[in-house]
Amino acid sequence: MLSxxxxxxMLAEVVAPSGCAACDAPVGAAVLFCxxxxxxxxPATSRDGPLAYGGAVAEAIVxxxxxxxxxxxxxxxxxxIPLARALPVDVVVPVPIxxxxxxxxxxxxxxxxxxPIAGAIGRPLAARSLERVRDTPMQSxxxxxxxxxxxxxxxxxxxxxxxxxxxxxxxDDVRTTGSTLTACARSLHEVGARRVFSLVLACRDGxxx
Length: 209
Description:
two-stranded antiparallel ribbon; 4-stranded parallel sheet; alpha/beta
């Protein structure tokens, strides 16, 4: 469920002109970044995300994720849709956050990205089929080895019937080493998912999952 702050932000996007996702400078409705910010919005070099993490892209993600700008999620999701359409998937699953962080933030940014993607490709959104059962330290604060240890047993499939014998599209905002996506994919495979594809908005380091 979205918080009141997130709902207000989304309504504001409907009634007010669109602004640059990174700096709020006026832009057209179909434009994500203003010319000044677009210079630093670079394409990803890996196959599971359209953008490289950095510059305007990083700023937009931080705003969406930590500054209550849930209204940015549908616009950011648009750049992920072409990649999603190219994948043979049956169901869309967002990477979950722990319930404590959900209460603090008011929304799961991955779920906000996943919803318009599911709608665009005509596949069901199984928003609650995975859960995060341990509130682990932020992955960005850890090295690669610690990330893998940090996520051991952190995810669990809540509704196996949503993914059993299906090809799953796993959606998140940022991929760094791929450890979060790998842990989620493992949990989905354990309950019978036939195949798991990953799709993120931005790739931090160019590593493929």
